[in-house]
Amino acid sequence: MGKKGKKEKKGRGAEKTAAKMEKKVSKRSRKEEEDLEALIAHFQTLDAKKTQIVETPCSPPSPRLNASLSVHPEKDELILFGGEYFNGQKTFLYNELYIYNIRKDTWTKVEIPNPPPRRCAHQAVVVPQGGGQLWIFGGEFASPDGEQFYHYKDLWVLHLATKTWEQVRDYIYYNDVYTFDLDTFTWSKLSPSGTGPTPRSGCQMSVTPQGGIVIYGGYSKQRVKKDVDKGTQHSDMFLLKSEEGREGRWVWTRINPSGTKPTPRSGFSIAVAPNHQTLLFGGVCDEEKEESLEGDFFNDLYFYDAIKNRWFAGQLKGPKSEKRKRRRGPKAEPEGADKQDSGEACAHAPLEVVREVVAEDGTVVTIKQVIATPGSSTQPQSDEDDSPEEAGGPWVEPRPRSNAMLAVKHSRLYLYGGMFEAGDRQVTLSDLYCLDLHKMDQWTVLVEADPETQEWLEETDSEEDSDAGEGAEGGEDEDDQDDDEDSSEEDGGERSRI
């Protein structure tokens, strides 16, 4: 037993050492990348001082490689952009733009405000649209000593007619549809008739009992002006179904279900209930401000009946004892008040509780928690609900979240994980809940997890203490000296959610 335990401990020590080494390499890589980003930012600051278009006849460009040389689509000109040069000790990167006139055999240096950052080994292509456009994608930036590299993934266009640079955001939304044949293992692109959803991400799909496909919600961003985007939370619904009598042909139809519809949101989760109804849970509604993004997280429940084309709010009965108390109290009055307050609200609308969470960095985040009102279920209540033997405990429900996992088995809905945000901190959940879809009484906690105890490491935090503990346990103390050297390094940067 002793020898076996020693071997296992030694094996765990090796694993911990490998994990620490990977962590240190990752930290050094982040540090090097940040150094390069700072250098790139410095050069961009210098470029920002250029506010006018300046065209200067010049001698041929200095030596360079990995630049792009493109042909003007309408003129007898060549366009040279970017490149690099190494003099044996130092690496130079360029974002200069040169025009070579083929007929006159002359060079012109063109300085245009807001150019792309310096780079080499990028991709370039010219198209004739709009009087000619030069498109630049990606490329590489190297440190002066040539030992560190930063790789771009940005996209730029030079409008040749107006001589203006424009950065094009690197996101593209699609609304195409593909099918996969389980017999031939091949993909096919569909071309449905009718008007379908606009391009988007994060939408949810579910199958109807008739074999159609329902598309709901999603998120997309549109450019409203230069360098400014506006996000849209979609709440529209579409049905994709095969055309009658035309095999292999599909048609889009926009549908407008009745009933109590979910509020606009993204990041919600869906599952199919035993009665072929689509079940929707949670999500987040982002409120975009000038330089911030605030999210209202939900924990409410909705059902969509494809046959009736109707949404239903998933109201829970609540614990038995709670129902008995509410039945004795004046519950009709507040429900009537709710009806008057909101003309669109259902008589059994969920209760919204707004609370503020203060993160460690002092950021105040508003979280909206949607609580189903106990005793408001439209399902008939039996006389047995008042029996003392069945009196339940306190009200239990999952905390508001987005991107949770849902599954239905034996008429029970299982909810696992997800996330919510508190300031700059993203809290990832690992709890597990169960809800009986027949009884619709209350959630049952199967795995409980306290997010307050979850470890959150800021990029500026020292790794000395944690690594030292691992070394003591794994018997690999010699690596802790390297950890002490790394502990003085600080990583910067902020996290943003798109």
TrEMBL record:
Acidic residues compositional bias, start-end: 452-492
Region (Disordered): 1-33, 318-345, 369-400, 452-498
InterPro entries assigned to the protein according to its UniProt record, in alphabetical order: Kelch-typ_b-propeller, Kelch_domain_protein
Basic residues composition-biased segments: 1-10
Superkingdom of the organism of origin: Eukaryota
Bias-annotated ranges (Basic and acidic residues): 11-24, 330-342
Pfam families documented for this protein: Kelch_KLHDC2_KLHL20_DRC7 (PF24681)
Protein's recorded name: Kelch domain containing 4
Organism whose genome encodes this protein: Molossus molossus
